[in-house]
Amino acid sequence: MQPIKNIKAVFFSATGNTKRVVEQLASLFSQELNIPVEVDDFTLPAAHIETRTYSPEDLVIFGVPTYAGRIPNKVLPFVQSLFKGNQTRAIAVVTFGNRSFDNSLSELHMELEKNNFSVIGAGAIVCKHAFAEIGIGRPDDADEALLTVFADEVLKKLQNSGKPLANSKIKRNESLTAYYVPLGTDGKPVNFLKAKPITDKAKCDNCGVCAAVCPMGSIDKNDVSLVPGICIKCQACIVHCHTKAKSFDDPLFLSHKAMLEQNYARTAISQCFA
Fold first, then answer.
1. What local confidence, expressed as pLDDT, does residue 178 receive?
2. What predicted TM-score, i.e. pTM, was given to this entire model?
3. Nearest CA to 185 among 263, 123, 108?
């Protein structure tokens, strides 16, 4: 087993939650191994072109958010096609917004293994939900303490066997299930796939930030009130709008948001596996 010579922090992070977790975990390894961290943020369209190849001397901390219990369906093709390992040791990380990570972590583990990564650890960390007011203040001190313990466990593993983590240790169901079906406040399924953000033109100053941060490149750069492309509801345009001009008014989307706030205000638990 070759020694680790490079640490790579790789992530898709529309609102910054996954970036924060992956970079914190990478920093813990960097401090212990005295190796600088190389960051690869593949959130924006410009990062969806070139394939990355990794060596047996790399340690890759790879993170994605959980959407509807899985890797976001528009992000999955990037995970599958842009990252190639060579018996490269990796840590799979998913973040989730206080409901559940369902099978997202198992799915990420599986996809990394398919691309010739050796997944030696995995973690699912609670963060503030992208659009519902739940998971506020997460990750918190307890989450950060968990990451520290997890990093120590993985480091010990690297010094000893370096044995890959079995998917069975993290799988939530026998097989990958369909994406979680969003529910409204009446408990019935809601479909807001076509919902897109609206713009309060009285507040918008046309700075263009929303178009620049859209992972799908879907917002018109010349008229940011137009969204001709697909919207994955990531909330990047809303989070980064300094005038708070962006919002969603789709009634089904808002019903699901309210359902989450009514039913998932309890404290969800972050979990790590090594």
1. 77
2. 0.96
3. 263
